[in-house]
Inverse folding.
């Protein structure tokens, strides 16, 4: 609240209102399985798979027009149209960045929650975290209605813990823009470069060419510096108070040609596709934002693209895709469609975001995120798997276009599961490598001989003994105590989905500190092949590992709660002794 009050005073001093700135599967987690499903895509269905579907009710106005919230109450005027045209013809970008002593999760909380915004920016806000949702910051709460902050603005797009973009209004002392609700756009993105060290970047765009826009640009040039300084002070002075619990998000990762595919297997699912493209950012940007660029690697298409917020992004005749937001050479968010076999997904709810970063060798890091997924029924689950493959094919097409040839796929692959746990690495190691630790969250029966040549044996039947039917054996190959061990496994007879696959792979368990009292857990499954048996095993282990990781997350939370209670008891005891 202290920081937000300072901003309010800054706004008043400048005579304006800072413009709208089951059953548990009988298999242990250690060996993990997945498979790339080889699909026969035709070109039309692949284009549908390219980005996914977007909620048709989440509409966004183009730059220089009235927002959806105000269209019903305002009339179009010649001066507004002239300002809008000026805005689109000459767009300037204002960029700011600073290093903040906070994690990407802390910063995400700070920018996307009412409590977080109040810690450094505005004392009150109304925020809906969805494309098209309300995004109003009330910076001067006691100001007249319409001049308190960013009334009438909407959230345009976001990538969890990475980026958000929203509409923004001009300050009240620029009535040529403010009174007509002519909006600009702001993108905030976070790059965590080390534990609790993140670069925060602000890109403000949509500035037109007129005296009013010049005045707005000069104002925000100073105002965003003030906001970033307030954010920096908040975490420097109250970092321990503001620090957020890291959300434990189990990830599954594998390579598909030149593309690294990441699947977020939490309840709110999303996909990510990464590739290093051997071309400049300008070349890659043109490839995905111009008709000629798309035709260069998808010659069978006849794209229609209007690079503006709300503009068309149509790959096929009849497509209803639109551009939700963009930042030149940096970010593009597009709504999409789904094939007819997924009618509910086709209705909307998901969206896709490209992000581009230049690399020192002149290449480009291209990341495509698809978000808004749920597990509400089998159709959504099937569509999710469909797009995991379709989008990987699409990004490989982009890579192949610039590289001249595809990346050869190896005969054997590896799958990586990863999560950041809110527990010290020693505690997580004990949960996996001691009998009491394993029995506290994973299985009721365990036997551990933790050494090279030793073993971890488990059984999910509480009435069974080690060696009875259902016993799973992991033979320890190598280890680095407290940090890593590798193992091979033997599947039980009553786990037919694992037979023929389990024994052909080996697993590597890695644990590393990730900031204070946190652990990065990586489970690497090596030796993957392809075929029907691998497909069956992938479905079996994907569900099983997700349930197992949820149990691990819950156990870490209990350990933290127990530690917190112990600290409170000790503090109370010290207070009594002092008295």
């Amino acid at each position: 609240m202290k920081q937000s009050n300072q901003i309010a005073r800054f706004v008043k001093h400048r005579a304006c209102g800072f413009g709208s700135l089951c059953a548990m599967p009988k298999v242990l987690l250690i060996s993990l399985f997945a498979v790339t499903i080889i699909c026969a895509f035709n070109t039309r269905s692949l284009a549908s798979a390219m980005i996914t579907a977007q909620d048709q009710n989440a509409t966004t106005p183009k730059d220089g027009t009235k927002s959806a919230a105000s269209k019903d109450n305002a009339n179009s005027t010649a001066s507004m149209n002239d300002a809008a045209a000026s805005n689109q013809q000459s767009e300037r970008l204002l960029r700011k960045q600073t290093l903040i002593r906070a994690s990407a999760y802390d910063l995400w909380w700070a920018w996307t929650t009412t409590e977080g915004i109040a810690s450094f920016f505005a004392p009150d806000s109304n925020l809906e975290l969805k494309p098209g949702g309300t995004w109003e910051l009330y910076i001067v709460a006691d100001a007249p209605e319409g001049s308190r902050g960013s009334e009438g603005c909407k959230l345009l797009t976001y990538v969890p813990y990475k980026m958000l973009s929203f509409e923004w209004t001009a300050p009240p002392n620029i009535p040529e823009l403010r009174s007509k609700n002519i909006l600009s756009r702001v993108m905030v993105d976070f790059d965590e470069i080390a534990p609790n060290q993140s670069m925060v970047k602000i890109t403000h765009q949509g500035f037109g060419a007129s005296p009013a826009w010049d005045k707005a640009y000069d104002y925000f040039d100073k105002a965003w510096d003030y906001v970033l300084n307030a954010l920096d002070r908040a975490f420097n002075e109250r970092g321990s108070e503001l620090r957020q619990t890291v959300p434990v998000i189990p990830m599954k990762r594998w390579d598909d040609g030149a593309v690294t595919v990441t699947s977020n297997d939490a309840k709110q699912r999303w996909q990510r596709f990464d590739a290093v493209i051997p071309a400049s950012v300008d070349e890659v940007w043109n490839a995905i934002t111009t008709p000629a660029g798309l035709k260069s690697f998808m010659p069978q298409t006849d794209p229609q693209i209007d690079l503006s917020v709300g503009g068309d992004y149509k790959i096929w005749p009849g497509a209803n895709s639109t551009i939700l937001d963009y930042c030149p050479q940096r970010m593009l968010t597009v709504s999409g469609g789904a094939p007819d076999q997924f009618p509910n997904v086709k209705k909307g709810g998901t969206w896709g975001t490209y992000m581009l970063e230049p690399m020192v060798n002149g290449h480009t890091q291209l990341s495509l995120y698809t978000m808004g997924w749920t597990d509400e029924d089998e159709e959504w689950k099937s569509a999710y798997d469909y797009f995991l493959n379709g989008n990987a094919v699409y990004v490989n097409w982009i890579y192949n276009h610039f590289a001249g040839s595809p990346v050869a796929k190896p005969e054997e692959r590896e799958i990586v599961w990863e999560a950041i746990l809110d527990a010290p690495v020693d505690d997580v190691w004990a949960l996996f490598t001691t009998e009491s630790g394993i029995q506290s969250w994973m299985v009721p029966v365990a036997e551990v001989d933790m050494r090279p040549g030793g073993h971890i044996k488990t059984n999910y039947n509480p009435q069974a003994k080690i060696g009875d039917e259902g016993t799973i054996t992991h033979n320890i190959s190598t280890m680095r105590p407290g940090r890593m061990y590798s193992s091979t496994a033997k599947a039980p007879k009553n786990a037919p989905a694992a037979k023929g696959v389990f024994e052909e792979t080996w697993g590597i368990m890695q644990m590393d500190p990730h900031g204070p009292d946190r652990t990065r857990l990586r489970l690497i499954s090596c030796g993957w092949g392809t075929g029907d048996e691998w497909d069956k095993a992938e479905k079996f282990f994907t569900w099983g590992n997700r349930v197992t990781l949820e149990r691990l997350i819950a156990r870490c939370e209990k350990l933290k709660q127990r530690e917190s209670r112990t600290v409170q008891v000790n503090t109370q005891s010290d207070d009594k002794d002092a008295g």
Observations:
- The chain has three domains: 2-21+64-242, 251-403, 413-553.
- Confidence is low (pLDDT under 50) at residues 6-90.
- Residues 44 and 536 are 28 Å apart (CA to CA).
- The radius of gyration is 26 Å.
